[in-house]
Amino acid sequence: MSVKKDVIIIGGGITGTSIALRLAEQGAGRILLLEKSHLGAGSTGKSGAILRQHYSHETTVRMARESLGFFRDFEDESGRDIGFRQVGMALISPASGREGLEKNVKLQQSLGVDTRLVDQSELQELLPEARFEAGQFIGAWEPEAAYVNPVKTVNVFADVAAEKGVE
Q1: What sign has the CA pseudo-torsion 10, 16, 22, 24?
Q2: pLDDT digits over 95-139, tens only?
Q3: Which of 45, 56, 108, 115 could covalently link to 40 via disulfide, CB atoms 3.0 to 4.6 Å apart?
Q4: Dist. CA 159–CA 17, nearest whole Å
Q5: End-to-end CA separation in angstroms for the chain
């Protein structure tokens, strides 16, 4: 007996489960998600699931910005806990990398990212447990950066997708 599906997704990590969820929300038809082991068995389950916007290419910054908003709003919209925590992130660079870091920060700011350059003394305030050699580092602070629990997120995505008819 053959079973017809409109969409078959191979891989039950964050990419596969999020595709299944979005397609189900859009009414894409009969959707089947296949995973050979268990959800999040691959790189998703080993991920730090960092949600940051510090990138050096406009398209990547825009994608990261939209993605951060999606994860930030997901719990409120779905009522499901994915372990979203907005803790901020410091990207630390040797002082010799200042020009490149400034360029990235200007690009990100032009696209609406809340980020700024921070000197070594402010880095020390932000990260009191870190030890820096005097004058050797500079940073970019992004207070909107966050993370989610990757295993919880992939399972919640799969559960919501299943409620919307995904097998």
Answers
A1: positive
A2: 899 999 999 999 999 999 999 999 888 888 888 898 888 778 899
A3: 45
A4: 9
A5: 17
Confidence (pTM): 0.85
Closest to 113 measured CA to CA, from 55, 48, 74, 50: 55
The closest alpha carbon to 31, from 42, 44, 20, belongs to 20
If you write DSSP's letter for every residue of 73-128 in order, what string do you get?
A: HHHHHH------EE--EEEEEEGGGHHHHHHHHHHHHHTT---EEE-HHHHHHH-T
How is residue 37 annotated by DSSP? S
* 147 neighbors 48 (Cβ within 8 angstroms): yes
Residue 120 to residue 154: CA distance in whole angstroms: 37
Q: Which residue, 135, 52, 57, is CA-closest to 96?
A: 135
Backbone phi, psi, residue 141, to 5°:
-105, 130
Phi-psi region of 158 (alpha: psi -120 to 50; beta: other; left: phi over 0): alpha
